[in-house]
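Wait, can you check?
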Amino acid sequence: MASAGVFLRVSVCVSVLCVCRGLTVGPAPRPVALVVIDVQNCFVPGGENPVPGGAEVIPVVNGLRSRYGADFDLVVMSQDWHCADHVSFASQHPGYSDYDVMQLDYNSQGALCTGPSPYAVNCTDGIAHALNQTLWPDHCVINTTGAEFHPQLTTESEDLVVRKGYRCEVDSYSAFYDNGGFRQTELDGLLRARGVRSLVITGLALDFCVAYTALDGQRLGYDTYVVQDAARGITQAGVDRALADMQAAGVTVIQARGVGRVLGVAGGSGRPGGTVPGPMPEVFDMRV
């Protein structure tokens, strides 16, 4: 499976990884992209699938853009974008509840083989992939308010938006791949076309979409950094596992105060207007 979907289980120091291991974070190879994962209405308190403290990342992300806006070579935002009867929704599986885990089976082509979902097919060629799927409340449904970016999140017209999770038969935590690694999103192609070498990742949720994106980014050869205080997770146990898994894979976990060192700047660009939402960015939505 191409996606980093199965986490390693290791016991390491995880509170501020670059500090507890005695490492000094220096300038990352350029160009550097800021990647903002799923800061949408559905994932903040009051949304359909809220991440505890999810709204707290918004001023941190906005602050990074305000201070270092011109120092990032690119800003990419991912957007969870589900059909109304998505296979990851508990409502589509009678007898299951929100946050239950069920096994979904797929053939070698990534077609769903099991379950009551209308997207399941008769897999005559056999089952090639078995994925454990957490079942979620209905959330981030295409063209609903819940799927929109939070109104207080900074956006700029030159930002790029990569949508994920729009294939109804498979979930997509990573902004690079669906959970089975069957298909890529546009993200890797967009980054490589611009020569991006390093990623600074923020957003929601740390123990799912942020971690999966970071693990895939590192595996694809990017120098990958996760800004811990610009992310929030669903459970503390999940966050601890994700931090350990990312460190084991070579991802560097930093705090917002360390972003300047990653960018190789002291005070930042101080780009004006960085805390006010601007024009909507260009959207990439490759559905087949």
In short: The domain at 17-84+138-284 is CATH 3.40.50.850 (Rossmann fold). Confidence is low (pLDDT under 50) at residues 1-22, 270-280.
